[in-house]
## 1
Amino acid sequence: MEKAIKRAQVLIEALPYIRRFSGKTVVVKFGGQAMHEEGIIRSIAEDIILMRYVGIKPVIVHGGGEAISRFMQRLGIKPKFIEGNRITDKSTIEIVEMVLAGKTNKEIVALLNSCGGKAVGIEGKDGQLILARRTPEKKLGLVGEVEKINPEILEVLEKEGFIPVVAPVGISKEGETLNINADTVAAEVAGALKAEKLIFLTDVEGILEDPSSPESLIPTVTLQNIKKMLEEGKIQKGMVAKVKACQRALMKGVKKVHIISGRIPRSLLLEIFTDSGIGTQILP
Ligand code: ADP
Ligand code: MG
């Protein structure tokens, strides 16, 4: 009996948050190794479905660099990188698109649907969602940055109760297919939809003062703190693109951005429906 009362209490504690976020868009970016682990991704899918059922409108953007590299190896092609950025030539972009939009995307869609959602997978070409241009770093090849997001397709899907799942592949005015960093796409999509929140699920707990020590988690940072950390070289590798994406999203009007670990069970629910919050929240 006591246990049952406690359970009911948990629901009531979530009420103010449900009231605040119901009807609002929350963009969630799936990343890290965690997104390739069946158990973890299923639990995240359940959290997303719960969000949808209390009236929150989730939009998913996913990465998948790991899956691309693995598939290239199966085909006997060696992936090449410059400072952690993938060099994307003509045959690589074909694999990028096939794996991200054809495989990873559909796995997430199928999982969300098997948990009771109505998910639809798209990439940047669908409904002209992501108009992109080549990055100034020419040696990376067919890598793009977002020129414009056309959010209509997402709005139509949201309105009808679908959960859009976006693969980070864009198309240029010239019709070139371009590989885009998923953090950047998530930020631009969140900005275009005027999302209430943008949440990055990754392998680390959040922004760390010292990347080698999980105890050095920074619970709250402002854009100014981030600028300083970047200058001091405290943010490196994949986290650079992520914090830049946070800056961009906040500048475009997203209310709050979170970086949290996808490995902590129920991390999305903890972050959205409780006061305690986990990971790092980034404020303007
Ligand atoms: P994702 O697949 O989610 O985009 P990335 O590997 O691209 O993840 O980026 C996250 C990684 O950035 C972390 O796993 C960590 O190794 C690295 N990193 C560098 N500096 C920091 C920092 N200050 N705090 C946290 N992580 C950092
Ligand atoms: Mg990354």
Note: The chain has a mean pLDDT of 95.
## 2
Amino acid sequence: MKQKILIVEDEQRLADLHRDYLQQAGYTTECLGDGMLAVPWVRENAPDLILLDLMLPNKDGLEICKEIRIFSNVPIIMVTARAEEIDRLIGLELGADDYICKPFSPREVVARVKAVLRRGLQSAQTDQSLVLDENCYLATLEGKALDLTAVEFQLLSILAGRPGQIFSRDQLMDRIYTDHRIVCDRTIDSHIKKLRKKIAIVSPELELIQSVYSVGYKYKNP
Ligand code: CA
């Protein structure tokens, strides 16, 4: 059965472009240009993924995302016209799965849609048991100790504390380096890389910590 994608976009030209490419990639699509129509449509039709523009007539993407999250975990990709908006959106903890910034190529949109749907599938198939003991910084996965450094433990603990929520590198740094010493973005990347390696030793199949392209990281959806 074909997966159903809802495109909420008031620029007709863009909506048509998304629709054409997504249909070509094998998805069925529905386009809505009015923010007021989105939530009732989602309730009724349960799409597999939503491409949600931020600025919409009558109800904006933020409000729509919040309302949908009350009753559904459907993957949501937020679309914004301003790159600098993305950090603020992440900070609002809306529960979106990915963010893309206009202008983008329709091919990129299709790639993101596929990636987000694939992640959803993986998390539905895996069932891991992660236990974090904050007192002694001890993490065990499937009954095996992970042998983490303090920073790796903190990273895992922040991410796992809110499965599915995207954290930017800045947000992770702020939470870990409370003394605000200057560390560069890549510091977080290198800690994450080591952390993933240690997780992979215990469970090679499990992709617990996921990169969100050009944005940051998240722990896999519950
Ligand atoms: Ca718009």
Note: Residues 129-219 form a domain with the Arc Repressor Mutant, subunit A fold (CATH 1.10.10.10).
